[in-house]
Write a structure and sequence with these properties.
This protein is of the alpha+beta class. The chain folds into four domains: about 70 residues, Phosphorylase Kinase, domain 1; about 170 residues, Transferase(Phosphotransferase), domain 1, CATH 1.10.510; about 100 residues; about 70 residues, no CATH class. The chain has nine helices and 19 strands. The protein is extended.
């Protein structure tokens, strides 16, 4: 250990610790893995036989006391998880590029004799170098399909990124890595973490309708429940990724035609409303028959809009960030509304405009708790919702809704490990429209 100067801990877990260190003899940064388990020896045996630009180099392996130390290349950059935390998701073009890079790495591993099955593909194990290229790290769960060897000692993987058959068998299958790559690809495109999704993996269109339907087919085939329904090799997956834009589905054609008709009818509606003004309208033609043609165009436009944008839209909130329903609403149909107002069909004094586009309330006569995000918007809370924020979240108790103008309140929090934390009991009493808080 005198050869290496440990700088600080990069990570720690049940399997051991990972340090950033400096090689005193060569004056370079290295990564040192320390563990008392023998899995580091297995990782060393696999890595020493591999040589690929997408894999880390191994420099040394030795034992000291009861621990085993594995010295590896230090990769400067960030993990894909850190990138996702910062940018939420990856653009379609970049996600396809990175997935093709991972295909190349996996093709190399699966093409070895015997084949190497990685088993734990996830954003935490993918490094993005400063030049934008990827490297796969942490081969602690990798195994080799040695001839005659059917089972490993334990199942290894991460929930959400591995198929169900991986938790039942330990023999190894290349389709396990194909499933994991499909899960990572889906997360890059949508930002939805499969390990914490409240309603399972959903189609790309439910997150972003601009994403190609060809990618949806690829991801579905990668993450098929049955191994026989997945791609049989990374080569097959790579071919489909390279040609996914050439596959245009009937549904995408229908949406394109629908959008074109919608724009066409909007232009026709505006023209049918404005052209008579330019040409001149006899007084006895107002409001009819002057409005007859614009109203026909308007109703046709709305019908096309409903068919193309509403009836064909699935209504499931899938991203974890959407567990909390923001009550800020968009006012749809603004063009139609303005046309009715201008034409005099709906008198302006009779229009009941919304006083506020944000609200949060429960049934009358009951106490409600308002929650606001960092932008000051009120939100309706959903049970078991998870709201991540680096800023403060403010809760409000309207004084006029307190039962009998008083309330005893205690805050209870549940940590990630299941431990429960309780605050002191606060007594809230309303006096002259102001709340006085006392604690016990």
């Amino acid at each position: 250990m005198e050869k290496y100067e440990r700088l600080h801990i990069i990570g720690a877990g049940g399997m051991g610790k990972v340090y950033l260190a400096r090689d005193r003899n060569l004056d370079r940064l290295v990564v040192i893995k320390e563990s008392e388990n023998n899995f580091l020896l297995s990782e060393m045996k696999i890595l020493k036989e591999l040589e690929h630009k997408g894999l880390p180099q191994i420099y040394d392996c030795f034992s000291f006391g009861k621990s085993i130390f594995l010295v590896m290349e230090y990769i400067e950059g960030m993990t894909l998880r850190q990138y996702m935390d910062k940018h939420k998701k990856v653009s379609e073009r970049q996600a396809v590029k990175w997935t093709l890079e991972l295909c190349e790495i996996m093709m190399y591993l699966h093409g070895r004799h015997p084949a190497v099955i990685y088993r734990d593909l996830k954003p935490e194990n993918i490094m993005i170098r400063q030049n934008g290229e990827l490297k796969l790290i942490d081969f602690g769960g990798a195994l080799r399909l040695a001839s005659g060897r059917k089972r490993e000692e334990m199942c290894i993987g991460t929930v959400g990124y591995n198929p169900s058959d991986q938790w039942k068998e330990t023999g190894g299958d290349v389709t396990w890595d194909i499933y994991g790559l499909g899960a990572v690809f889906h997360e890059m495109l949508t930002g939805a973490n499969p390990a914490v999704l409240p309603c399972g993996r959903r189609s790309l269109a439910e997150y972003d309708r601009s994403l190609s339907s060809g990618l949806e087919k690829i991801i579905k085939k990668c993450t098929a429940p049955k191994a026989s329904d997945r791609y049989l090799s990374m080569e097959q997956l790579k071919v489909d990724l390279l040609h996914y834009r050439k596959k245009v589905s009937g549904s995408s054609i229908f949406r394109t035609v629908g959008k074109f008709l919608y724009v066409l009818m909007m232009v026709s509606t505006i023209l049918s409303f404005m052209i008579p003004f330019v040409l001149g309208i006899p007084e006895n033609h107002i409001p009819f028959p002057y409005l007859e043609q614009p109203l026909i165009f308007l109703m046709t436009t709305q019908m096309i809009r409903l068919i193309n944008f509403q009836f064909n839209k699935k209504r499931c909130l899938c991203r974890q960030e959407k567990n909390i329903y923001l009550t800020e609403k968009r006012f749809l149909g603004l063009l139609s509304f303005m046309l009715f107002i201008i034409s005099g069909v709906i008198p302006l004094p009779l229009v009941d405009l919304p006083q506020s586009l944000t609200y949060a309330r429960e049934e009358d006569g009951t106490l409600w708790v308002e929650m606001r995000d960092e932008q000051g918007r009120k939100m309706l809370l959903k049970e078991d919702a998870v709201y991540k924020t680096d800023k403060q979240v403010r809760f409000e108790l309207p004084a006029d809704r307190l039962p009998d103008q008083k309330l005893a309140m205690q805050l209870v929090a549940v940590g990630e490990n299941g431990d429960t934390y309780s605050s002191r009991i606060f007594y809230i009493q309303v006096q002259d429209e102001t709340a006085i808080v006392k604690d016990k």
